Task: structure prediction
Amino acid sequence: MEHNFGANVHIMNHPLLTHKISLLRDKHTGTNEFRQLVEEIAMLMGFEALSDLPTKTVELDTPIETAEVEMLAGRKLAIVPILRAGLGMVSGLTALVPSAKIGHIGMYRDETTHQPVEYFCKLPNPIEERQIVVCDPMLATGGSAVDAIDQIKKHGGRKIKFICIIAAPEGVKRLAEAHPDVQIYVGNLDRCLNENAYICPGLGDAGDRIFGTK
Ligand code: PRP
Ligand code: URA
Result:
């Protein structure tokens, strides 16, 4: 089915990314490999999502000559995982930008209502000028992502990108409508949600698979 979510939604579908996401989906993939794959996928997605980071010209000496080269301008990135599962993506993103500050937003979905419940929020301060990258492997109903970004905006965050590995169309639509100013990067777009608000075909419970809980 074709979807038109708007210009702020980027469905990545790169074959290398999709291959790794397919390995994540396999119920036989164990915790160790799952964690490793989430880290690699986050790095690949971050590489694309951060392609517009500003650079500045600096002068340095190569072994051959003095040259003007481009380097990242400022140290202004904040990575904000939505706990717990978003934590699995942090190492992949900090591998790209080691100077990034890291905030945390704790959310869980109530098992019966599927509504997000916030239990923790600690963000780098000040946050106003930072490019913020919110990460969570799963965008299902969209409730957690919408609420997390509401919180970040209440704290003054303005330049926000959201990266998720797998999304349901319902969640993408809800997030894109609630926060049209946020650039949304999706690894693979799945078919739908089931009656328990799980993504189909999905990969199951991302937090449990990353941390080996159940
Ligand atoms: C999962 C996932 C998202 C949320 C997505 O977290 O990591 O945060 O569900 O669902 P939504 O789009 O319908 O809000 P979960 O609530 O299972 O918490 P956990 O990461 O601590 O396991
Ligand atoms: N959270 C998950 O971890 N998986 C889903 O499919 C939906 C929400």
Notes: The chain has one domain: 9-211.
